[in-house]
Amino acid sequence: MLKYILGSLCLIIFGIFIIRKPIIVWKIRDAWETQDGTEPSDLYIIVVRIVGGLFVFVGLVVFITQLFS
Are 47 and 18 in contact (CB under 8 A)? Predict the structure, then answer.
């Protein structure tokens, strides 16, 4: 049970980081693919924030289910 709670807290923290700093995620993950090093598109930022929101949601669901089980 403790490993699920810790894993869900990691997911929540990582999801919040992704939502707040999508540019850093782009620099780590996808910046090498560009020739001129331009910033990511608005669509990329939106999709990354949605993925971060999903991480937070899944983390919260697992956390809550483990607390009440």
Answer: no
